[in-house]
Amino acid sequence: MAPKSSTTKGVPGPASNSHEKAAAAPNPNPAHPAIEYPYDPYDADALLRLDVSVAAAEDIPAETPPPMEASSSGSNAVGGGLEEKGLRRLQELAGIVREKVELTEEEVRANDQRHQDEMCALEAIFGDNLVMFSTKEGQRSFQVHVHNEIPDGIDVSARLSFGAGTLNYKEAHDGDASDDLFYKFRVEHLPPIQLTCLLPSSYPSHQPPFFTMSAEWLDKAMLSSLCHMLDMTWEEQQGVEVIYQWVQWLQSSSLSYLGFDNEIVLSKGYQTCTEDGGDTRACPDNAPPDVTIPRIIRYNDDKCHDAFLHAIHCCMICFSEFPGNPFFHFAQKCMQTYCKMHVKEGTVLKLLCPDTKCGAVVPPNILKILLGEDEFERWETLLLQRTLDAMVDIVYCPRCQTVCLEDAGDEAVCSSCLFSFCTLCREPRHVGVECISPEEKLHILVKRQMSEKKKKGDIRKRKPKGDIQKRMDEVCSIMEILKDAKQCPQCKMAISKIEGCNKMTCLNCGQLFCYQCNAAITGYDHFKGDCVVFDQAELDRWDTYMDQRVRRQGIARMQAALFEGEYHTCPTCRQGIPKIGNNNHLYCWSCTQHCCALCRKPVEKMSQHFGPTGCKQHTAKTR
Known about the structure:
Structural class: alpha+beta
Strand content: 15-25%
Largest sheet: 5 strands, antiparallel
Number of strands: 25
Number of helices: 13
Radius of gyration: 42 Å
C-alpha cells in the first residue's frame, strides 16, 4: 500500500463517481521543485477497473485486489510473486494523481494509438525484460527490468554491525566502529532495477507515465534521486514518449549519477516518508544484509554462468572453439578422454583441472557424466583405496585384506576375521618380542619347506607346499624391492630412483621426499643442508654423457674435413653432415639423428621416407 503520508483528498472510492479536483500533495523531495501531476477522471475509472483501490492512498489500509494476469514478452505467464509485486506498485500510483485533465475523444484515441506503438517498440527492444500486466479495457501497465552495464565488474561493500542478535547495516555516524564488520565482494552483474509504469489516458499529450522504482541494492534516498531524474527527463521532453529514454538513462548513467563509478556501498535506508526527503515512488527492498548480500552474489553467479554457456570458448586441450558447456573451459570429448585415461591408469589423485593455473579436483557430478558406469565405479574404488593408502594409521589384514585401524603400539585387530597382528612385520601379535627381519623370515620359511620335504608319512601333518612357496616368493620380492628402493614417508609405497635428482614425488599420494635421507620435504630448500640434489654417481654419468657428445661432435667435424665436397646442415643440431657418395640418407655424429639430404627433414623410418612415394635414396651429387 502507499505510505500514509501520501494523502489524497477528494478522490472518490470504488463506489463513487465524483470527479472532484484533488488537492496537491506535499513535495516528496524538498531539494527539488515540486512537479504537478494532473488528475484525469478517465484514469480514476481505469484504476477502478483495474481493481486498484484509490483508497490505498488514504490513512486506512486498502483491501488487497484480486490477482491480475501477467505475461512476459516472448515467454509464458509469470508466477504469482511478480503479479503481486506489480499490483503493490500500481496501488501506490493511485496516490500520485493530482489535477483534473479534460481530454477530447480525439485526444484519447490519439494517445491510445501512441500507447500501442510505444508498447510494440518496447517489446521488440527489451524482449523478456518487459513484463506486461494484462488489464481490463485497454489500460496498460507493465514492468521493465533494467540491467546495468558493468563490463569490467565493480566492487560492492557494506559496513555491518551485529547488535541485538541481528546483522544490520552501520553508517559512519553511528558511533564506535571498532566492532564493525567490513564486507566486500566483486560482481559483474547487479540485480535489475524494476521500473513499474502505468500509462494514463492523458499520456503523452499532457501527463507523464505513473511509475514506481525498486531495487535490492539501492536505499530510499538513492531511488528517490533516480525518480527525480526521470521527472527532469519528462520536463525536458513533454508530449513525447519517454519510457525508452528512461530505461536507457537508468541502464547507462544511473551508477555514475549515484557516484558508484568504482564501488557500490550498500547502506540502510532510514527514509520512509516524505518528511524524511524520500519519494513515495521509491520502493526499497528493506531486507537485512544477511538476505540482500547473498541475493546479489547468487544473482551474479547465475548471470555469469548463463553468459559462459552462451559464449564461445577455446578448448585449452585441443585449441578448438566450442560453445559453453558445464565442463570448465574444455571440450567435452577432450575432458572425457582425459578423465578416462587417468581412471584406466589408476592415477585418480591426478585427476585435476587441466588448466595449470587452476588445479582444482574434477567434481564427482561431472565425472559421472563423462565416465561410463563401470569407469565411474572403478574411479570410486581407486579413490577410496588411494585415500586409505595415504592414511598412516590404516593397514590391511594379512589374512583377509580387510581395512584395519592401527593403534599406538603398532598393532591392529581385524574386524572381519579377528586376527590380531603386528603392523610392522604382518605376523601374529608378539608383545615384548622384536619383529623379525625379512631375511630371518625367509630363513624360517626355507627351513620349514625343507622339513616338509622330509615328511613322507602322515599327510595330515603337512601344510600345502604352494602356501609356503607363495610366502617365500613374497618375502623375496620385498627384499629385492627394498635393496634399490625407498619407502614413501607418508604411504610407505616402495619407490626406486632410476636417474635424476634426489627430490622424489610419490605417485600414490603425491608426497615429496628426499631420496637420500627419506625425509618428507616441501621443495628444494631441504638440500641446503647435508643432503645434495644430485649424487656424485649422477654427476659422473652426466659428465660421461657430455664427454661422449663432445667426442661425437669432434668425429663429425673430422668427417666433414676428410670428405670434401657436398655437405648438409643437420636439422636438429645444425652440425654440418657430408654426403658420402650418392646416398641421401645422412647420419649426424653430433646428435645421432638421421636426416634426408633432399628434403632436409629428419628420417624416423627409412622404409617410409625413401621409396616410390617419397624421396629418392640415391642421387648424383649436385656439386
